[in-house]
Amino acid sequence: MMKCALKDSTIILSGTYEHPARLTVTERFWTVNPSQDNSKNLLDHPDYGGRVQFFQNKDRMFLLKLSNVTHEDEGMYCIRIETNEEKQKYLGYPGVDLKVTDLRVEIPEEIIEGQSPVLFCKTTCNLSDKTNFTWYKNGKHLSKLISTNQLLLQSVSRDDTGNYSCAVTDQKHVSPAVTLSVRYPPKNVSVSVSPCCKIKEGDSVTLICSSDSNPPALNFSWFKENQSSAVGSGQSFSISSFNSSHSGRYYCEAQNKYGSERSASVSVTPAGGKKTERSGQVLYAAAGIGATFICICIIIVVIKIMSRKTGDAGVPRGVSKQESNNTAVPVQTSSHPSNTTDSNELMYASVTHKSPKKHQRAEDEDEVEYATVQHLRNNRNASAETGCQYGNMRDHRPAVSAGSNDEKADDSSVIYSSIKVA
Predict the structure, then answer these.
(1) Are 214 and 184 in contact (CB under 8 A)?
(2) What pLDDT is attached to residue 281?
(3) Best CATH choice for the domain 104-180 from the list 3.30.310.80, 1.10.10.60, 1.10.150.20, 2.60.40.10
(4) CA–CA distance, 90 with 79 (Å, rounded to integer)
(5) Is the peptide bond before 195 cis (omega within 30 degrees of 0)?
(6) What is the per-residue pLDDT across 351-366, written as a single tens digit (0 to 9) for each?
(7) Whether the predicted model's global pTM rises above the 0.70 cut
(8) Which of 245, 275, 308, 318 is the most buried (most CB within 10 A)?
(9) DSSP class of residue 84?
(10) Tens digits of per-residue pLDDT, 26-48?
(11) What Cα–Cα distance (Å) separates residue 221 from each residue in 8, 192, 204?
């Protein structure tokens, strides 16, 4: 009889015996690979210490319980009976032939995307028909509905790639993991450009083709739109000195033994350099505008300063700015006796009174200076008044020293400055 046991599992072997009524059984035990003259009790065997137990059930069956089974435990297990008579010994041979097995996962040699492969949980000997199996992917338990030693994967994809293992339900032994690799043609093919953003004429430009495939793509072809033939090969395509003739849209095609796929087209132009130049022009223009604005501000400030100086220069000499702002008093005088109907009537406007200088005496305070005196004439008698025109007449009097008699004589004098006759 052959018994298949899973490594690291616990098994129970059973056997029965009968003896003549006249004999008394003095000892019974299990032994392994016995001989008629040499049968060692497993309880005393150093390789089985702590791993074996003997017991008898209600059906008078003699049982052996062996735990943590190893490959070294393989052999023939028999019951040995000894009686009160030296020559009356019994050996139940052949007994139970124990085989120890591991678990291993078997998968097809090649699995292509879209196929439906079957995985097997294999042993070197046949376990009980009632044995249930558990499957794992990357260490995680798969569906409990799968309890046989076969695992069917429907229409596999690259997502089914992983490490698969199996175990007998309720047993701690798990098979070594086996990697399932799904083969598929290139996918997600793309092109990257280096440098990625700023390409100037004369630069060295490299295009790189990337793809997701199993096995990795080994054949790459480069194409330029509107050209019938390939412009390059290899995973990268380089242009040593880029110029306008190289401008265009490029794409690559990746291929392995299971298929091929092309990338989307990418535009490669020297736009980056032009963009940089335009940016510099804008910067120069902004700097020019700023400089112009500053110059205009400076000119305005200079004009205002000159205007103030000119205004100060227009005040009569000897008259302060505060003094020149005194209220003008309209005065009517006549060079002839008063006559309201006289066409020769003169009017002096914008008459300015000048305060006395600090160095003048009190008796000089009556001196009056008339500045910007205008003579208004009657238009109806313009011809008669022609001889009364005074133009820019000034009376420049000599400086008068304090206390002189001449100064007293001139206290009542009148100075006419910038007299205009209209």
Answers:
(1) yes
(2) 55
(3) 2.60.40.10
(4) 8
(5) yes
(6) 444 444 444 443 444 4
(7) no
(8) 275
(9) S
(10) 888 999 998 766 788 999 999 99
(11) 55, 15, 20
